[in-house]
Amino acid sequence: RKEVEQDPGPFNVPEGATVAFNCTYSNSASQSFFWYRQDCRKEPKLLMSVYSSGNEDGRFTAQLNRASQYISLLIRDSKLSDSATYLCVVNRAGGYNKLIFGAGTRLAVHP
Amino acid sequence: EAEVAQSPRYKITEKSQAVAFWCDPISGHATLYWYRQILGQGPELLVQFQDESVVDDSQLPKDRFSAERLKGVDSTLKIQPAELGDSAMYLCASSPPTGPEQYFGPGTRLTVT
């Protein structure tokens, strides 16, 4: 079983739709959580950190459920420019900072 | 906005040849990472430096890959000899002292023929 698992998609949604991505992680001692966005053939870019209390940045909302080891990302009012792969990322506990990346969920927003 | 620099952006090489990639992290970032990303997968850590010291190279194929960060600033990743299966995107990242988030360079796309 992979340490971080995501639905690969693709999610094909019309502009204006609300879409949610889910992610599960296996290491219960994981300490920090992130969503990264990666455009085709580009580098991953930090989208947002995920906090236990949940956090929102404009149209994006991230939530963490430590008991279920589950992370989510909600995108409201989807734009064409949101089309990308969204990577769920977990900071492995202990020792030096090490991020474990999921394989990503692909989102395609169409007119 | 400070960025991680990488070069070259693209590299085509024949199998059994040597290839090297360079990375310059964001100024002040003591931690530097090299990742390999195969199409359709997430980045996988190859090696992690804290200043000039390697702190994790457990996933680095040491028979053919080497990495150094001699002065604790920029870094070089080398493959010798390259194999067909090494074709991938090689990403460098750095992280600030204040937090675990990592910032990536544009990557080097390697094609081995």
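Chain A touches chain B at residues 4, 8, 31-32, 34, 41-46, 49, 87, 91, 95-99, 101-104 (CB under 8 Å).
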